[in-house]
């Protein structure tokens, strides 16, 4: 049976996901959309040629009888409200990262899901579906590097909008790494520290950029991540795992090498869309399939919560300049 999806938030990723559900993936239709900017919602429906109703509020969309599942792609601070409403309506919900901007918000979502008695939520941590990250994970899991001692990583964006402020480097940007490392290493965080470098002249007044985040895992692996969201030159995600018997690098995206005009050059991507296109396809296809089968398997509310607990410690570390402990509660049996 076709899964009838309602999309809340018709901005960049809302449109990307709606396009892939309509044109690339199988088993689902977009039947409803909503955005605080109604004109933008209507424009997306027209551009994609959707037969979808435009709702004035996300709540009305969630309540609609013909909506089986909800895709939340609005701004991060609005996710909690919509995910809770979808759970209360007993509907599957795919929520883009972050699940909520604080661990407390994620905790409320877990409590509602546990009370509902079945998994209804999948979080958009798409790196778990990326081929390169899966190669890294297989290498670690097969013990080909020995123990993972260190990870060096970088998350660079060309630029960010005016509304992006210093803590967003953690809960909007680093949140991907915070999920990825615990998944890669099958471990939890023990502590976090944030160090600010000299500020780039390309960052606006409300964001300190770049930042270096230093993480310690419970089993002792040390991680450094450069978060640089106004790097100007391109979008790059790097990850190198240093083990006892070898070093593994996340593969670079394939690109043509062009020799021309006395130069040899390769294209660098400018945003996340192409970089993770295949991973987005796979994660959403899995969500559609699993929702139809009635058993969600992808990143859970617990994963959203665990990343947020580490994220809260990082934000505290931004403010204190100290090494902050990460106090990870015990995983509820529901999420085992
Ligand atoms: P965007 O600004 O392009 O779009 C967000 C849309 O949400 C806008 O159209 C805005 O009007 C709408 N909106 C805001 N508040 C709303 C509300 N209360 N109710 C309904 N609609 C509301 O942003 P974006 O880049 O598409 O990001 C959206 C979300 O997706 C963010 O949480 C972001 O972190 C996440 N995201 C994830 C990835 C990824 O790689 N997984 C990539 C980009 C964005
Ligand atoms: C964006 O919101 C994303 O989630 C991308 O995956 C991320 O790499 C980028 O830094 C964010 O702005």
In words, what does this structure look like?
This protein has helices at residues 12-23, 38-48, 58-63, 79-88, 103-116, 131-141, 168-185, 272-275, 277-293, 301-320; strands spanning 3-8, 28-34, 53-55, 69-72, 92-95, 121-123, 148-156, 189-196, 211-217, 222-228, 236-243, 247-249, 257-260, 263-266, 324-325. The longest helix has 20 residues, at 301-320. Strands 12-11-7-10-9-8-15 form a 7-stranded mixed beta sheet, with helices on one face. With 336 residues, the chain is an alpha/beta fold. It has 2 domains: 3-127 and 278-300, Rossmann fold (3-Layer(aba) Sandwich); 130-272 and 307-327, Dihydrodipicolinate Reductase, domain 2 (2-Layer Sandwich), CATH 3.30.360.10. The chain binds nicotinamide-adenine-dinucleotide and (2R,3S,4s,5R,6S)-2,3,4,5,6-pentahydroxycyclohexanone. Nicotinamide-adenine-dinucleotide binds next to helix 1. Nicotinamide-adenine-dinucleotide is lined by residues 8-14, 34-37, 40, 58, 73-76, 78, 96-97, 124, 126, 172, 272, 276.
